[in-house]
From TrEMBL:
Protein name: Uncharacterized protein
Organism: Zizania palustris (Northern wild rice)
Keywords from the UniProt entry: Cell membrane, Ion transport, Membrane, Transmembrane, Transmembrane helix, Transport
Higher taxonomy: Eukaryota, Viridiplantae, Streptophyta, Embryophyta, Tracheophyta
One of the record's GO molecular function terms: zinc ion transmembrane transporter activity
Entry's family note: Belongs to the ZIP transporter (TC 2.A.5) family.
Length: 412
């Protein structure tokens, strides 16, 4: 009996300890522990009137730059006839590589750093926030979760399209020759699933489904095994149709990539907008206007490129572009409205900010490396054009450099 009483007592004390930690972590009280929020520098430059005017300028500038970035690839697709040609120009590939570098730097340099700063803040209890690397752990879980969603969603959409294509082929048998020529992706997927694909179609299909750089590399090597002379003979389009069917026209893969990329961008755009909106310091807001305008333009360009490759219906493409363009301005507006009672230095705000920043970092890093960089840099178009390779690598490395905070007068 004594043993059970001791166990009950220790359990009660442990539960009480956990409650204290939870209460301290979600407290809304202000915390100004040294280095906790950087409040002293903000107080020295505090000017609510000037800050409000700068916020209005920021809303307009970020809205215009984000909308311009996401619209340019969509307009390019329409001008090229809407046949997926938006991604065929060398200039577009270079700009997309630069944008991928910006997104990668956003995840690694900006979001992870901000999350680490928030979750290791002295305002939070040392246990568990400074005893365990929550930032990297949450980012890893977010990246793996994105992988699972990417994989499952791609299979679901392509299976659905395959069934629709099979029904269409059964209803209109006279169109079967056209479908077998590959005009309809769903029928191609059906034939591959049934084992009727020619020249190793199953291997290419499997490689395309497995999300990751090794899968892209496998599909790339496989296509070379069947058409390695395409770069010399000028029949790049024919070889692409043989080795990389997913690069010719829309597929469920492109739809999933565009949607997940928007999810990652939107989630961190909300945090950025709120952070700017609650600030009452013109010294903090002014450099952020230029930095975020640049940032939104190239993130929008990358997202617009993915949407154009997915070849969504006009309304769906418009809604995705519209939702992206207004997210950060909406966050700034909400932050401005709650600035009078929202305390960014409270433990609750720090925990929420740190977790969301970590999740956004994981999503953006995965999308940048797997679905933007690997998908383009391991494609036949890139391998057949050494100039494009060199230019794309330069643009890719310039992207992270151009998003360094010190270029805009920011401390981090």
């Amino acid at each position: 009996m004594v043993f059970f009483k001791e166990m009950e007592s220790s359990s009660a004390s442990y539960i009480s300890y956990l409650r204290q930690i939870a209460a301290a972590s979600v407290s809304a009280a202000s915390c100004d522990v040294g280095g906790g929020g950087g409040g002293s520098s903000d107080d020295e430059c505090r000017n609510e009137g000037a800050a409000f005017r700068l916020k209005m300028v920021a809303i307009m500038a970020i809205l215009v730059s984000g909308a311009a970035g996401v619209v340019i690839p969509l307009v390019g697709q329409k001008r090229r006839g809407g046949g997926g040609g938006a991604s065929s120009g060398g200039t577009f590939v270079l700009a997309k590589a630069f944008a991928a570098g910006v997104i990668l730097a956003t995840g690694f340099v900006h979001m992870l750093h901000g999350a680490e700063h928030a979750l290791s803040n002295p305002c939070l209890p040392a246990t568990p926030w400074r005893r365990f690397p929550f930032t990297g752990f949450i980012a890893m879980l977010a990246a793996l979760g994105t992988l699972v969603v990417d994989f499952v969603s791609t299979h679901f959409y392509e299976r659905k399209h395959s069934e629709e294509a099979a029904v269409a082929a059964a209803i209109a048998p006279e169109e079967a020759p056209l479908l077998e020529d590959g005009a309809l992706w769903g029928t191609m997927s059906t034939r591959v699933e049934d084992g009727e694909g020619r020249d190793g179609g199953r291997e290419r299909q499997d490689a395309m489904h497995i999300v990751g750089m090794h899968a892209h590399a496998a599909a790339h090597r496989h296509s070379h095994a069947h058409g390695h002379s395409a770069c010399d003979g000028g029949s790049v389009h024919a070889a692409d149709a043989h080795g990389h069917g997913h690069e010719e026209g829309p597929s469920a893969r492109h739809v999933i990539v565009s949607q997940i990329l928007e999810l990652g961008i939107v989630s961190h755009s909300v945090i950025i907008g709120l952070s700017l909106g609650v600030s009452e310091s013109p010294c903090t807001i002014k450099p952020l206007v230029a930095a975020l305008s640049f940032h939104q333009f190239f993130e929008g360009f990358a997202l617009g490129g993915c949407i154009s490759e997915a070849q969504l219906k006009n309304f769906s493409a418009f809604m995705m572009a519209f939702f992206f363009a207004i997210t950060t301005p909406a966050g700034i507006s909400v932050g401005t409205a709650i600035a009078s009672f929202y305390n960014p230095n409270s433990p609750r705000a720090l925990v929420v900010e740190g977790i969301l920043d970590s999740m956004s970092a994981g999503i953006l890093i995965y999308m940048a490396l797997v679905d933007l960089i690997a998908a383009d840099f391991l494609s036949r178009k890139m391998s057949c054009n050494p100039r494009l390779q060199v230019g794309s690598y330069i643009a890719l490395f310039l992207g992270p450099w151009a998003w360094q905070p010190w270029l805009y007068g920011l401390s981090e």
